[in-house]
Design goal:
The protein has 178 residues and is of the alpha+beta class. It is built from 5 helices and 9 strands, in the order αββααββαββαβββ. The strands form 2 sheets. Strands 3-4-5-6-2-1-9 form a 7-stranded mixed beta sheet. Strand 7 and strand 8 form a beta hairpin.
Length: 178
């Protein structure tokens, strides 16, 4: 396997993705040396990978749960899977079913993210998880590794106050090198 595909490097900005009553979701956007966007954001890449496939309904359910969390609950820890330094969506199966008000909502997709606070979540990219552990799945391992590197970098920028959080607002004036 090509190691360049496993270790995505570049410069990123944090951009607002979607705002709801209780949560603002952000995403990472790769940029060039001049700060111009390169392609789609991480989250838009995830959506684009599955929207016109057999997983379309899974994407719709996943983003419906993201909307419900954002509108009704806030980004409570219990709604997120712990994925080392990062987090994952959808919520664990029993909570996912409850949120969507269906008897058995289970999807094979993972969308990696960083739950910063109950009001701020940064969405990354993901894939179709086909192995028990993300690290062992060729589909999600690169996204899992990227999400954990990004989460560690973002956590450090928050600690150094280069990223400021005020309620649902996140401000980061610099690009992030990953």
């Amino acid at each position: 396997m090509n190691s360049d595909k496993l270790l995505k490097v570049g410069y990123y900005t944090i951009n607002e993705f979607q705002t709801y009553e209780n949560v603002t979701y952000y995403t990472l956007q790769e940029v060039d040396e001049e700060g111009e966007p390169i392609g789609d954001s991480e989250t838009d890449q995830f959506i684009g990978s599955f929207m016109d496939t057999e997983y379309r309904s899974n994407i719709q359910e996943l983003f419906k749960s993201i909307e419900i969390i954002g509108e009704e609950y806030g980004a409570l820890d219990r709604f997120f899977r712990h994925e080392q330094s990062a987090h994952g969506l959808p919520p664990p199966t029993s909570l996912f079913s409850t949120i969507l008000n269906v008897s058995d909502a289970e999807i094979p997709l993972r969308l990696y993210c960083l739950r910063v606070t109950e009001e701020v979540v940064i969405l990354f990219n993901g894939g179709n998880k086909t192995a028990e552990k993300a690290q062992d799945c060729p589909n999600v391992a690169p996204h899992f590794n990227f999400a954990n590197r990004a989460a560690n970098s973002i956590d450090q920028l928050i600690l150094s106050r280069d990223i400021q959080i005020d309620g649902k607002d996140l401000e980061c004036s610099e690009t992030i090198e990953l």
